[in-house]
Amino acid sequence: MILRRIIAHFRKQEWTAIAIDFVIVVVGVFVGLQVNNWNEARAERAEEYGYLVRLHEDLTRSISTIERTVGMLERQAAGQTVFLDALAQCSVPPDSRDEIEYAISTLGYINAPIFSSRTYDELTSSGAFDIIENEDIRTGLSDVVRRVGHLNHTVENIYRLTEHHRFTVEENVLFTNIRPFDDFGSTASVEYDIGELCRDRKIASAVSAIRLQTMDRFYAYQALATLYRRLPPMIEGEIAERWGVDLGAAAEEVR
Q: Residues 197, 235: contact at Cβ < 8 Å?
């Protein structure tokens, strides 16, 4: 209809009317494009919000898992220290037998760090990672994934380093009553003669070498847990500022 009007005005050489019609057309196209852009931006922001919420959930799970792993490493290292003291004294204090049994049954076993990366993988595989506007959040996620990848790779090296030491100890003990411990594996009762073990210097050396690797993983996983913990408050702050939602309070209600 506008086109017919412009043609009619052109034939009559009504230049003012033509200019007005032209302005109407330009303004209409401009407004239409702006509305379309606004709708796209609104949909993108809604999608970003969904990703941030899911990333927050993934990180919460990851923090819980890494804290359990750090706790397990701490308990292993403590038990290994008690075991070394018992070997040095050639006697086991009455209240230390359980610690030493746990130390022996888990000697050299170190779990790889876990990051719940489903949402991160979805973002990167679909090429939508930049939908997260906050650069600090993007950088933090990338740092976590890079650190987890590195630690996962080094776990295999640690197993190779400690395998011989673990066998040195296991060849001199007897495992009985094997049972599930938790999601990370099993535990067992251990029969051993501390008098025999303490006379073999290789036993103490093997336990000492394994304790070194256990403590190395303990400190590395503590640092990873710190990286994990930095991100949820950042995501909570981003959502509170831009969407007015208190995600931290909502997460506490779920717990």
A: no
Distance from C-alpha of 177 to C-alpha of 109, rounded to nearest angstrom: 18
Query: What is the mean pLDDT of the segment spanning 156-160?
Result: 86
| Distance, CA of 228 to CA of 147 (rounded, Å) | 11
φ, ψ (nearest 5 deg) of residue 177: 50, 50
For 172-230, write each residue's pLDDT tens digit: 999 988 777 666 566 678 999 999 999 999 999 999 999 999 999 999 999 999 999 99
Residue 115, φ and ψ in degrees, nearest 5: -125, 125
Q: Is the distance from CB of 169 to CB of 104 less than 8 angstroms?
A: yes
Both structure tokens of 239:
């959502």
Integer Cα distance of 83 and 100 in angstroms: 5
Specify the higher pLDDT residue, 105 or 82. 82
